[in-house]
Amino acid sequence: MIAIPLQHILIFSLLLFAIGLYGALVRRNIIGILISIELMVNASNINLIAFSKYTSLSPETGQIFALFVIALAATAAAVGLAIVLALYRIRKTVQADEVHLLKW
Amino acid sequence: MENIGSFIDMIFVTAKAWILALLGQFLPVWIVVLASIVISGVAILCLGPVIMMYLTLLERKVIGRIQNRYGPNRVGIWGLLQPIADGIKMFTKEDIVPANADKLIHLLAPIMTVVPALMIFVVVPFGRQMTAADLNIGFLYFIAVSSITILPIFMASWSSRNKYSLLGGMRTAAQLISYEVPMTLAAVPAIMMSQSLSTNTIVLTQAGSFGLNWFIFTPWGIVGFIVFFLCATAECNRPPFDLPEAESELVAGFHTEYSGMKFALFYMAEYMNAFTLCGIAATLFLGGWQGPFLPSWVWFFGKTLALICIMIWFRGTFPRFRVDHLMAFAWKFLLPLTLVNILLTALWQFTSASAAWLFSIMILAAMLYMLVKLNRVFVPEKRNYVLAD
Amino acid sequence: MAAILVFALGVVTFRNLFHCALCLAAALIGTAGIYIALQAEFLAGVQILLYVGGVITLVVFAIMLTEHLAGKTVRQNNAQSLPAIVGLAGFVTALIALILKTPWPVTEAALKAKTSAMGLGEALMGTYVFPFEVISIVLLAALIGTVVIAKKDAPEERP
Predict the structure, then answer these.
(1) What are the chain C neighbours of A52 within 8 Å (beta carbons)?
(2) In CATH, what class is C1-74?
């Protein structure tokens, strides 16, 4: 099942990352931005595991790295969502361009 | 006698091998491989709903007996055709979809509830060499797939556009994720002792000495089994943990707006979940398909049905948990208990037999005492009412 | 892989936020499939358990608490949509050229190396025990932080 050349997986994860980046730059809803960030982290995880499979003599390194990245991404999502909830309670909105009190 | 015993034991395995040999005589190899997968898949797909149908009948009869009445006994002898009557009723009911509902998600939610419930059947070891797919991450697959079942509950509650569905859905989801953690941790000692995640290996580790090697006969096994069983009851939304779908509180919670076949799918998913969770509890702690005289699959079904009868017994006996009690029970009581259980397992492994029992009982007693003291129920202080005269 | 890209496009373009979360769940389950194809089964299981069972649940909880039920769908993209597409297209093209040119050190020995849950466990407790402890502290801090940020303030005492 390893007939897929490495470049294909790398290009695929690059496209996934680009789609996530587009979402993070363009969406107005803060939760939408957080979802796009999750997509980006996922794309980088695929990269890690692909490299550990194809070019590394000890696949554990890549997989453990990816495990920690999953845990950290979950942490970031949790804290981000807590901030969103606190923001909603005060400002009653979750659109990113309506939270502009500190803008010049 | 020995030959007949082992023949009946392996009857399903030999039947499948015979069919595959028959096909292999005039078909290419890859079709035989495909046929092997298809036969297992078809067996599971036939077995699942049939088990679910007769589980509903078993439950109604056992609850009837607990409540001092017969269960359904009009349709067929002993009510054996009752599930078929139920099925016909569900099929012919009108399928009502609320006007404001999100149609695609409303349709997808019951399907996505049933699919993981069926997928778990793949790793359950029904008998000697009768696991449909002996994955070497079997237990992790089981936990991962049962954590997918949370998402369609959100889908169902959100797409119904109904405040009560939403509340019920959120409570159900909170309950399911809270009870998933102690369930996983309670099973970790069994995995530690058998050093493999594959369900078949876990069963084989409990072999020998006439059933005294089953994990339940060790101190960490008893605690682990009780915690796992309670969390399994909560994961299936069965009483006493069924607040989210209680008829008297939330008008059936997240499946309020479903009728007909979609409701039947939710119902089916709940019973299949109950069966697989009891099956996994039996493999982890009760020794799976092992037993002296009868064929292995008879032992497996016997143990699983005994556990299901205990679940039905809970339904007839206990009142419901209130939702904050439910959460407090999971996070403040079961979770520390499972963590101490893992410590106990390590202790058991590294000390001699009698000292291990003594230490374990002392530590467990201390832990339980502490937990009960720390979890005192919140009683508001008495208020003095000054009445107007 | 194409299916995952389609779901990812769905994530960034749907107007209804709940549909986006569901597309993300589908994309993550697809990624777990890719991990199985790359022979990292343990990580596939962990991905489904943590991401789909945990992160998506969190995201959906947050959506439910902050969206109106019969939501009128507002415009999802802000005005910077076109420069973003142009910039990203340039970025992607440059990187694809780079990927195709680099001689990646793919060795036969590396392709044959396998690991299992046991190997991962030994590595986690052996070589990588320090990151393991650190991440447990990080998770504890995140847990406490999340609870503190998101809890309601206690109602003030009436004098």
Answers:
(1) 40
(2) mainly alpha
